[in-house]
Amino acid sequence: MKRYATEQLRNVGLIAHGGAGKTSLTEAMLYNAKVINRLGKIEEGTTTSDYDSEEVKRQISINSAIAPCPWKNHRINVIDTPGYFDFVGEVKGSLRVSDGAVLVVCAVSGVEVGTEQVWDYANDHELPRIIFVNKIDRENANFFKVLEELREKYGNNVVPFQLPIGSEENFKGIVDLVNLKAQYFEGTDLKEGEIPEDLKSEMDNYRSYIIEAAAETDDELLMKYLEGEELSPEEVREGLRIGVLNGDITPVLVGSATENKGVQLLMDNIINYMPSPKDVPPAEGLNPETKEKEIRNVGEDEPLSAIVFKTMADPYVGKLTLFRIYSGKLKSDTTVYNPNKDQTERIAQVYLVTGKKQEPVDVAYAGDLVAVARLQHTTT
User: Fold this and answer.
1) How far is CA 24 from CA 14, 150, 163, 205, 206, in A?
2) Which residues pair with 333 in a beta bridge?
3) Please, which of 43, 77, 201, 260 could form a disulfide with 28 given CB 3.0 to 4.6 Å?
4) Given its phi and psi angles, is residue 290 left (phi above 0), alpha (psi -120 to 50 degrees) or beta?
């Protein structure tokens, strides 16, 4: 299995009001990453992340599920979370180990009660986030109405990075406001083309939001902007990245998960703007002997530190414990110390998990989300 350096990882939680399309989006990302060779459907009970019998029966997510997606020399570790209030513990546990979040909003329903709730959970963990306006191909979908609703609710730091070309059954492409180009769909592939005339005035208007947001992230860029100088494309992209990482900018993207349209561009933006584990503050904890606070920097040469965020039952391997590794590395066939239980645990085999499937790996590194079977003392 290919090893990804810590800076090549992106750990993102998918959050939303129930029914906004998180699981379909996860499925499309796995398909684009060539992890699966066909798109599963919720109605048929064939999606990767909704595999529990109750999830299949009720056609909703009950458990959070991990879906690693190799993409352009990076790995996006997607955590698909439930959208219904009954399973809020799964959402909170997943965001605890995420470095960023993708908030999925329905282009028909807009901001809903669950949208506001998960936004607050992301705030609790100070997570940078991207908003993906989904279901733009549905009847009564209205991107611009939802965008204004988001800006009214969460402020002007909500900035569109894309505009849809057409909507409902006429959704045929996306205008990239950052790089000033139009991409048209040919099946699920993208082909560059001309920006439609009827979108140019709106493009100029929303482009000004982007330039202003980028300029405000850096004093030198702000002076240049206020003096009327044009920012270079590199300055704009770097300013936007800084703003997103700081939580000062929330990009808005658009697409259709079930049609796998716009999902590739979302994955590009996750890589470009979401933090790697090295971009977030180091983990803090208490030394079990001295009871003093200590910091563990991200790096494989640091002592091992990890947190359990989920325990699940597997019919073949038994109890499966899911970890986020914050520093050091975790090897198969070793022992580790659990300070909360004052016990050592034998790590027989480390697994990389995709939905209900486990792939054995010899070693996992800082930033990885992995699982271990049959631990005796460790709990969530």
Assistant:
1) 11, 22, 21, 32, 29
2) none
3) 260
4) alpha
